[in-house]
Amino acid sequence: MNGRMERISAAANLTIEVDAERWRLLVNGAAQEKVLLEAVAGESIRTESSFATRRRLPENGRLPVESIQRVVLGWSADDESWHLGLLLEPELARRRGSRWCELARWPDPDVTVFSDVATRAGRALAQRLARPFNLIEPEVAVPEAAPPPPPLKSLPLPFEIWTLEKSSALQFTRNAAWLRSHLLRLAWYTFLIVIYIVLSVFTLRQIIALPRPEFLPYLGLATAALLVGLSLYTIWQILRQPDRMVVEPSGVRALQGKSVRWSIPRESIEAVYVTEVLGKKSKDHTVQHGELSLYLSDGSFRNLLVQQHPVGIGVSPDHSLPEDGVGPLTLYSAHGDLQMAGLYVAQTLNAECRYDRRLR
Predict the structure, then answer these.
(1) Entry pTM
(2) Cα 101 from Cα 86, distance rounded (Å)
(3) By Cβ atoms counted within 10 A, which residue in 23, 138, 151, 202 is the most buried?
């Protein structure tokens, strides 16, 4: 101790006093401190009579160093305390009924609060007695490892209009059925336009008899004009609507052929949102409506795909949660193709994936 005295407080009004030559255990009485035990280098331990009686030590107040095997400090989970004491030789242990003789303790539920001071007190005592010092480390409970998350569902993931797949990059590819349905719709509009115009013109030119009421030819021409507008809109959709949405770490691009229709850089994307509307009384656990969107830094959303028709998810929704709520979506909680698609997009963008759940 280099001539410096150190005082260490312990439980039950005890104080350990350590200097270069001695180690003393004192109790703080009503009037003054009383020495319960004193260890001086090269001498037997001296003990106070009542202390010796309680610890079943020799009544003469002298405990030979040869009767001490080692000094031990350990943490007990039973009372969540550090305990400092002496491990005695077998002969003395037989007379007193135990090898362990406790000297001081430190309640310490956090394990680390008093570990240093208790260790200093124990090492100092072992040095004065020239006996080994044993520190019994507390057994730290190793937390049970969480099971690994289930893997993402294998690609491709088909949806109503789009299919999520991965070639050179993760991308949503528009189904060929979409183009076929729009071309068929355009052909049907064209056929109806010709029929309405021909019938209306022939009627007005009295090539065929006028119908009753007489405004029907004009109604036919108006219908033909409406169909022309619908045809032009369908042509615009075929020529301008994206047929691919490419998801890369740098952001998301919507393409029509090789032309970029819109592009969102990664720094503008706050999170990926999966929104599902579930029926409260659905027995087959059906998602009535679903959407996959990007939540942008300006507070707006960019929709990627819409699931308009009911889809069974095969698991029961947790109705104990609020009807409308947003929370994180992870591999542990994900189910259904739409949520899997959301996680694929979020992982590629290295962004948070959120689940917007609604009951209707």
Answers:
(1) 0.54
(2) 5
(3) 23
